[in-house]
Amino acid sequence: MATKSKVAGTPGLDPALPNVPLTIGGDTYHLCFDFNAIAQVQATTGVNLFAADPTKFDPITFRGMFWSALLRAHPDLTINDAGALITPSTIPAIAEAVSKVWNESQAEVNEGNG
């Protein structure tokens, strides 16, 4: 039986995972788009991120993307917990973090194909 590393698969510690820290209300959250997060967005919102226009997301998709990106590092957060973090004052920072972690996850895919 393989032992689980405290680094492997942990956003912020595993250099192979795209990771973007986001601080809201003094708490730091780590966002990560791995394949499970991408699939969770589709399961939650019906949006296939591989085919979607990332500049045209509605509130449900925005919340779903944010929550899904949080799950790897914060598996106990519910979608309602993620939604509670989204306020008019946090939307710009969350949008920037979600966009950045999505772009970083795509860079990993593109680098692997080159």
- Principal-axes shape call: globular
* SSE ordering: EEHHHH
Count of separate DSSP helical elements: 4
Radius of gyration, in Å, reads 14 Å
Largest sheet: 2 strands, antiparallel
Helix/strand structural class = mainly alpha
* Unreliable residue stretches: 1-5
SS strand fraction: 5-15%
Number of strands: 2
Distance between the termini: 34 Å
Strand order of the largest sheet: 1-2
Helix residue percentage: 40-55%
Give the oligomeric state.
single chain
Query: How confident overall, as mean pLDDT?
Result: 82
Topology:
Blueprint: E1 20-24, E2 27-31, H1 35-45, H2 59-70, H3 79-85, H4 91-113
Antiparallel strand pairs: 1-2
Helix pairs in contact: 1-2, 2-3, 2-4
How would you describe the overall organization of this protein?
- The protein is mainly α and 114 residues long.
- The protein has a domain at 31-108.
- The protein contains 4 helices and 2 strands; from the N terminus they run ββαααα.
- It has helices spanning 35-45, 59-70, 79-85, 91-113, and strands at 20-24, 27-31.
- A two-stranded antiparallel ribbon has the order 1-2.
- The chain is globular and about 35 Å long.
